[in-house]
Amino acid sequence: MVRRRHTKDQILEGAVETALASGLSQLSFGRVAAHLEINDRTVVYYFPSKDDLVGEVLVSVGLRLQDVLAEATAAKAKNHVELVRAIWPVVATEDADPVFALFFEANGLAAAALAPYDELVPALVEAWIHWAAVRIEGGPARRRGEAEATIALVDGLLLLRQLGGADAADRAAKRLGVR
Question: Is the pLDDT of residue 4 over 80?
C-alpha cells in the first residue's frame, strides 16, 4: 500500500465513493482503505466504529443533496405539489440514482431494525422534513404537513424510479401533476 497522509474529510469522501459504488452493506474499513490505498487502521482512527462511518456517510450524502437542491428551491413553495415540481427535475436523474439507491438501502436496513440504521434513518427523515418545511409558506403546522406530503411523494416516486425505471416514475409524476 502507498502511504499518504489523509484527512478525515478525504477519508469520508473515499467512504462516500465506496458506498455509492458498492452499497452500504459492503461498506467496510477495508474497502475504504483499499479505495484510498491506505491502511485500514487510518480509517479506524477517524471512524472508530462502522456505525460512525455509516452515520457520517449518510449525513454527508444528505448534505450534498441539500446543496444541489438549494438552487431549485430558492423560492418558498405554496404547497407540497409546488415543492415537488421544483425538486423532481433535480432528483430524477441518472446522476442522482446512486444516491437514492443508497438511501433506500438504508431505509430497508432500518425497516429490518438493524443498527445503526434503525436510529440513523428516522433522524435523517426528520431532517428532510424540516428541510422541506422551511421551503413552504404558512404556519408551522401547515408547513410540517406539507413537508411530510412532499417527502412521501418524492420518496414514492424515487422508489418507483429505482424499481420500475425512469419512464414509470416520469409517467407517475405526470399523472400526479408534479411533472
Answer: no
Q: Nearest to residue 34, comparing CAs of 54, 53, 57, 11?
A: 11
Class of domain 1-48: mainly alpha
- Per domain, the residue ranges of the chain are 1-48, 54-175
Three-state DSSP state, 23: coil
Question: How long, in residues, is the chain?
Answer: 179
Q: What are phi and psi for residue 161, nearest 5 degrees?
A: -60, -40
If one counts every other C-beta atom within 10 angstroms of the C-beta of residue 89, the result is 11
Mean pLDDT of 45-53: 95
Amino acid at site 58:
L
Count of alpha carbons within 13 angstroms of residue 179, beta-carbon side: 19
pTM of the complete model: 0.89
Model confidence over 125-174: pLDDT tens digits?
999 999 999 999 999 999 999 999 999 999 999 999 999 999 999 999 99
The answer to whether the CB of 136 falls within 8 A of the CB of 80 is yes
